């Protein structure tokens, strides 16, 4: 079991952590015809907007209540009301997702009360869902914001419905990419089941060219589909961050849930496909048996190059668990692990210590490692240390196709295993004639030669 410690520095240097409001905003971006609204200053929204644009390389609809010094002191009702009305009149979204920030949380704005008053004043908003989530910057991190937003989306929109045996809810964590979500959907559909995924970035931020322009999100989980989640046979939650949402949905609608802390690796996917087989009352398709065999062969091929390698990882807890567990399966050692927030998974990590800290902490602990794994802000640290670097997580702004990086399922795990193995192969030390290590002469060779003579 790992020991979880906290960095004692007075400030973060090269931060690893991203704030909860940004995580919540990304969750709302996974809904169809939605416009996320940050209740705070313009700067809070601007930083998140730039981060998402650089990572996804797409148009990101994100609005702000533009709080200033005076409105912060007097209260944000007028700003929130005006922002909601402007969004409604100009964009006509089906959902407005409201995320609080450290500014308005410190002031103590009663946003739930504000929304009741706004609805009373403006009956034209009756057909627009207003979903508010409390996400102060100073509490939690990116995946906490995503989990809280997903919980509020479900508790606000879902209602108990008659059960549909072939309908399956899927609650993906923020560590899953667009390609990961698409792979999960295709796998479930191959069993004849109907998945409803929320939030669903694979519909809204998959990089497609839309036929028309809309000022809201285009694609993702619709309000109608989310409401029907109350009649599913089961909820599949992927990532510990989604436990809150799965429990809340079960409490409100009675739909049972099954947790998967990861879908990367051999055993995790065996259990996932076994569950789908039981739900569909059918055998696992032959193509997955073939893919499983390919993954086993890939792991056999890669373990010669991965075994004994020391790795440093910096990531959100669920992503840290996902990649760390796979590396351990391949025989690697987690030499350094830095994360952003608390999770029950941390103590189970196959490492001696898990530090809640920043990328400077990771750099100090990564000296002598064979690989560093984190998002793009860790590239300079890896360069200074002279060690290979694998980009994973958000933001990934110095590579194309970040959203289409696949690492779940048998296929995704296989490709990730090959990528890891190839990195280690590229950095093998090859001896040259002038640097070939010679046997150490301890005198025995000379004695043996004399005896033979």
From TrEMBL:
It comes from the Bacteria. Keywords: Nitrogen fixation. Residues 443-453 have a biased composition (Basic and acidic residues). The keyword Nucleotide-binding does not apply. PROSITE patterns: NITROGENASE_1_1 (PS00699). It holds the Pfam family Oxidored_nitro. GO terms for biological process: protein-containing complex assembly. The keyword Glycoprotein does not apply. GO terms for molecular function: nitrogenase activity. Pathway: Cofactor biosynthesis; Fe-Mo cofactor biosynthesis. Residues 19-423 form the Nitrogenase/oxidoreductase component domain. Residues 434-453 are annotated as: Disordered. Belongs to the NifD/NifK/NifE/NifN family. This protein may play a role in the biosynthesis of the prosthetic group of nitrogenase (FeMo cofactor). This is Nitrogenase iron-molybdenum cofactor biosynthesis protein NifN. The lineage of its organism: Bacteria, Pseudomonadati, Pseudomonadota, Betaproteobacteria, Nitrosomonadales.
């Amino acid at each position: 079991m790992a020991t979880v410690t906290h960095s004692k520095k007075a400030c973060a240097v090269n931060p690893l952590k991203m704030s909860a409001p940004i995580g919540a905003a990304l969750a709302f971006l996974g809904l169809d015809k939605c416009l996320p609204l940050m209740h705070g200053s313009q700067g809070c929204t601007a930083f998140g907007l730039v981060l998402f644009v650089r990572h996804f390389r797409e148009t990101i609809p994100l609005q702000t209540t533009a709080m200033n010094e005076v409105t912060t002191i007097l209260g944000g009702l007028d700003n929130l009301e005006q922002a909601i009305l402007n969004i409604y009149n100009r964009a006509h979204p089906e959902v407005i997702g409201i995320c609080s920030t450290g500014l308005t949380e410190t002031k103590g704005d009663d946003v739930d009360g504000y929304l009741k008053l706004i609805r009373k004043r403006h009956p034209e908003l009756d057909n627009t869902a207003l979903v508010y989530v409390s996400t102060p910057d100073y509490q939690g991190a990116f995946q906490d914001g995503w989990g809280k937003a997903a919980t509020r989306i479900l508790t606000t929109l879902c209602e108990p419905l008659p059960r549909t045996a072939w309908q399956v809810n899927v609650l993906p964590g923020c560590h899953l990419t667009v390609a990961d979500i698409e792979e999960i959907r295709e796998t479930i559909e191959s069993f004849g089941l109907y998945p409803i995924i929320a939030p669903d970035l694979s519909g809204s931020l998959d990089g497609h060219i839309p036929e028309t322009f809309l000022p809201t999100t285009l694609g993702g989980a619709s309000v109608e589909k989310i409401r029907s989640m109350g009649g599913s046979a089961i909820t599949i939650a992927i990532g510990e961050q989604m436990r809150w949402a799965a429990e809340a949905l079960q409490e409100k609608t009675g739909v049972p849930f099954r947790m998967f802390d990861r879908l990367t690796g051999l055993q995790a996917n065996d259990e996932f496909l076994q569950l789908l087989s039981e739900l569909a009352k059918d055998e696992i398709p032959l193509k997955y048996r073939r893919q499983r065999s390919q993954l086993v062969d890939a792991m056999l091929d890669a373990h010669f190059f991965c075994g004994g390698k020391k790795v440093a990882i910096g990531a959100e807890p669920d992503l840290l668990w996902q990649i760390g567990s796979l590396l351990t399966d391949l025989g690697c050692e987690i030499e350094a692990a830095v994360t952003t927030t608390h999770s029950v998974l941390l103590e189970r990590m196959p490492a001696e210590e898990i530090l809640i800290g920043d990328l400077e902490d990771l750099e100090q602990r990564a000296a002598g490692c064979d690989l560093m794994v984190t998002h793009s802000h860790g590239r300079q640290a890896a360069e200074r240390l002279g060690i290979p670097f694998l980009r994973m997580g958000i933001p990934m702004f110095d590579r194309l196709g970040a959203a289409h990086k696949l690492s779940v399922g048998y296929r995704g795990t296989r490709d990730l295993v090959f990528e890891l193995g190839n990195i280690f192969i590229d950095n093998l030390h090859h001896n040259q004639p002038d640097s070939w290590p010679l046997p150490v002469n301890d005198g025995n060779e000379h004695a043996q030669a004399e005896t033979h003579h």
